[in-house]
Structure formats: structure tokens, C-alpha cells
Amino acid sequence: MKTLQYWGTGNFQEHPYTGRIVTWVEKEKQTVDDAIATKLLAANAGFVLDNDESGEVVTSQINSVTGRIKVNSIPVEKVAGHVFACLGDSISYQNTNGSSLSLRAQGYMTWAGILSGGRIVFDPAMNFGASGENSTQVAARVASVVAAAPEWCVVHCGTNDLYVGPVAYEMTIANLTTIYSALLAAGIRVVAMPIIPRAKDAASGSLPTAQRQQLHRINNWIRRTAALTPGIVLADPSLNIVDHSVTNGDPIGALTAAATAYTVDGLHPAPRGAYYMGKSIADAVSSQLCPISYSPVSQQDTYDATNNPTGNLLLNGFFTGTGGTAGTGASGSLAASWQFRRSSGTTGTIGGSKTTKTVDNGTTYPMQQVVCSAAAGSTTENMQVYQFVSTGFTANVDVIYAEIDVEVSGITVDCVKSIQLNLGDGTNTRICAAEEAGFYLPNGNWSGTLRTPAFLIASGASTLGFYLNIVLNGAVASNSVTVNCSRAAIRKVS
Fold first, then answer.
1. Are strands 29-32 and 2-6 parallel, antiparallel or unpaired?
2. What is the mean pLDDT of the chain?
3. How far is Cα 308 from Cα 324, in angstroms, rounded to an integer?
4. CA–CA dist 151, 191 (Å, integer)
5. Alpha-carbon distance 211 to 216, whole Å?
6. Closest CA to 107 of 431, 383, 404, 424
7. Residue 58: Cβ within 10 Å count
8. CA triplet 93, 184, 119: central angle to 5 degrees?
9. Cβ contacts of residue 228 below 8 Å, gap of 6+?
10. What is the C-alpha to C-alpha distance for residues 479 and 88, in angstroms, rounded to an integer?
11. What are the b/e assignments for 402-430, b being 16+ CB within 10 Å?
């Protein structure tokens, strides 16, 4: 007999004797016979041998590909949050388009991270999307996701099965089953997403009726499977993407490529479509995720080499006081140590004022409010809230990332091209929610945490630049948006 202990955050494993999926709870101990112990340990999914029943973790390693710490092969994320991967075709690939620099506004994982308030951590290295692949090809790559050891994986594939090939329904289901089973067997929880509404075939024409019907057949199987399978959560944005004014199930905007469309071409999500995809993920999993965040909770959370080496490198990340510097097109009150301006364009203005946010106990903490506006006929007006940091870091040694909480409201017309966070060292720039040319963000109110990918500060860098960019397009009419900012930080990765 051997005593095993599970050190993860919840794990679904196939019972060696019954074949049923059972749940192990974090730090749970069980004494099992040698045969079961051998099989569970071989799965390499969070179980440690505890012969002396101390539960002591004695070995560790760092994955050179992902940079993630593993303790006894158990992944432990170095940046706050729960690590997510995505697996699929070009709809997943466009989260980053293969770049390690930016999380794109037309990426559903970008919005999942933002709208989860930082609970969901998605790094470009965890993008396992590949353009043009059908479900057979995607299933052949699932081992790469298992090797990367995320806590969760969002699976969205099958749209290319409908016309590129095509792939028979039975094969699509077999491939999805293979993907889900491989992830669950590795202790990776699955977010299953139905194929999003589409209006395009491989030749840019309307999708034939037979293929549309197969899409719904596949999606109904995905929904049913998620409901019946422990370890699988359904994230379904379909109702928010489909155009209910037509009968063919096209997405809003269909093939128009209009700035307000939910896809860029009838198939691939535009920022508005990606927003609802990400929202469906955040809504589906947030209740199951610990609300981990490194966003400052006090002005005292500042960098100190001895006492707080992962403290905030920014001055006044809590946006207290006034006295900030107003540049071109800027007016009003801005928190101390900060600057704001119109960095490009001719008519854009940014007005600052101080406000507060109320927490559950009725007390408040400070927020910086900016109202950004542009005149009718303008094209691209970029307003910035920014700060430079020149101390507290070592080039070519420290790995850093940036984050900021935002609340977006008061959009007057279709006008917001981008709200993005940029962190740069003069050589490298990491971006969260990069602008997609020709398309607008959603008009409704939303809030969340913008967080950049982490990166190694370049050799010779002496200054870090933190920029919140708010980009408007006033081509249709005069317009404005209100953005409340709070809890900004640049931190070193521990």
C-alpha cells in the first residue's frame, strides 16, 4: 500500500478500476494499493508519493518553453491567476497571430482575461491555434497542450470541418472526444465552446444549408457533452453573435466587414464578436476560480528590494491626489505622478477628474476618470494616460508585466477603436487588447483588468513606459467615452 497526496486545485482522473471520472480535492490524501498508485503517478497530473505522510514537496523544475514553475510536475503559475490555453484553428490563432508581443482585441482569450478581472491568465505561449486546420489536425496536436500543462484549455474547432474537406459529422465528434479525453486525463479542465455562427465558406460565399445544419448538429453534441461530463464547462456565445433579424443563422454583420460587424469576414471574430466569446468564458468559469489578483489594494504596495521585491514599480499606482501633468489636448485634474495627452490626431481631447469606487463595506478608494472625445470627421484620435519608470529594475535580469483596472462607459456612438495597455522598455513593447483596424469595440459598458504578457527587460534599457491608450474614430459623428482607471502596476515576475 502507498499513500498519495494531490497538490493541485482540483483534478479529474479516470478511476483505474471502474473507468469512471472521479475528483480529487487539493491536498487530499488517500492510501491505495500499489497498482492504483502506479497508474496515478504515471499520469503525472498532480499526485505525489507521500511515503512518510508528511506531504513535503521536495523537487522542482522550470519548464524552459513556458517559463512556468513545476513542483513535482505540478504547475504553479508565477503571475497571479489561473493559466489557460486555447486549442483550435485560425479563430484561436488570431488571439495572438503567433506573436509573443500582444494580446489582440479580436482574440477571445484577450477578453476572457480582461472580463475575468485577472482570474484568467493567458500568455501567447499558450496559444495552440493553427490556421486552416480541421478537427482531425487539431486533435493530432493535443499532446502539445498536455505538455504545456495549463490548468484549463478552451477548445474551439470544427468550423473548417464544414467546408474545407469536408469532414463527416462522425469524424468531427470522434476528434472532439479525443481532444476532451486527452485533456481530462492530464488533469486539464476543458472549456468547450460551440462553433461560432458563420456566413462564409472557403470561396467567400454563403455557407450552404447542409453545412449550416451540420454546424448545429455538432454544436448540440458539444452542449450535451459538456452537460454530462465532469471536468468540462460550456462557454456558449452563440446567442450574442448570431443575427436574429435573419433566418439563416449568420453572425451580425455577416459578410459586410462593417466597422460594427461581429466578424471581420463572416467567419473570424472582430473585436465585438471576440468580446462575447471571451465574456462567455469568463462567465462560465469565474465562479470556479479563486479571485487572485496582484492589482494594488493599498498605496503602500510599492517596490522595495528587501521588503517587497515584487511590489509596484509605478509611482502612485493607486491614483491618489492631483498634480499630474496635462499635455496636448488634455485638461482637468490628474493624479500625482501621471501624465495625459493626445498623442496623435488633431481634434481629440482628454479631460481628467477624480472619482472613487465603493467596495463591499461601503468605503471607497480613488479612481482616475478621463473623458475622451473626438469631433465629427476625425479619423484616429489617440489619447493616453501614461507614466515613465526609471528605477527599481535591472535590464536583462528582471521579467516584468503591467496591469490596470478599467471601467468603460458613456460611449455616445460607434467610435471606440481600442482601449489598450502598452508596456515598453524602448526595445520591446507588450500590448493587451491591440487595435484591429477598421472595427469598433462594443458600445456597452464593461469593466475588467488589462494585463500585458510578461517579458525580459532588454539589455541597456533605462526607462519603462506604461501607457493606457484610448483610440477614437470620429468619422461618423462627434463622440466620446468615459474610462475610469484604478489599481495600476508594473511588477516583476517572482
1. antiparallel
2. 86
3. 26
4. 11
5. 9
6. 431
7. 8
8. 60
9. none
10. 37
11. bbbbbbbeebebbbbbbbbbbbbbeeeeb
Distances (CA, A) of 194 to 205, 372, 391: 22, 37, 47
Are 179 and 86 in contact by the 8 Å Cβ rule? The answer is no
Tell me how far apart the alpha carbons of residues 483 and 491 are, in angstroms, rounded to a whole number. 23
Dist CA 277 CA 283 (whole Å): 10
Residue 48 has, within 13 A of its CA and on its CB side, a CA count of: 23
- Look up residue 236 and give its amino acid: D
Q: What would the pLDDT profile of 121-132 be if each residue is shown by its tens digit?
A: 999 989 999 999
Main-chain dihedrals φ then ψ at residue 135, nearest 5 degrees: -65, -30
Chain Cα centroid distance, residue 81: 11
Asked if residue 424 lies in contact with residue 464, where contact means CB atoms within 8 angstroms, the answer is yes
The vertex-190 CA angle with 188 and 192, nearest 5°, equals 165
The count of C-alpha atoms lying within 13 angstroms of the C-alpha of 192, restricted to the half-sphere facing its C-beta, is: 28
Quick check: 411 and 481 in contact, CB under 8 A? yes
Write down the H helix ranges in 202-263: 209-228, 238-241
Model pLDDT for residues 10-67, shown as the tens digit of each residue: 444 443 333 333 444 444 555 555 666 666 665 545 555 554 333 333 333 333 333 3
**Residues 433, 471: Cα–Cα separation, whole Å:** 12
Here the cell at position 276 is 462575447
Residue 384 in grid coordinates: 493616453
Selection from 16, 51, 14 nearest residue 31 by Cα:
51
Measured CA to CA, the distance from residue 188 to residue 412 in angstroms comes to: 42
Alpha helices in 74-192, H assignment, sequence order: 90-93, 108-115, 135-139, 142-148, 169-185
Asked if residue 179 lies in contact with residue 138, where contact means CB atoms within 8 angstroms, the answer is yes
Are the beta carbons of 88 and 157 closer than 8 angstroms? yes
C-alpha cell at 275: 468580446
Q: Which three cell numbers stand for residue 115?
A: 472580463
What pTM was estimated for this model as a whole? 0.84
Place of cell 476618470: 369
Q: What is the pLDDT of residue 100?
A: 86
Q: Which residues neighbour 100 within 8 Å (Cβ) at sequence distance 6 or greater?
A: 124, 125, 453, 455
Cell numbers for 236: 456558449
Mean pLDDT of 217-245: 97
Q: What is the mean pLDDT of residues 217-221?
A: 98
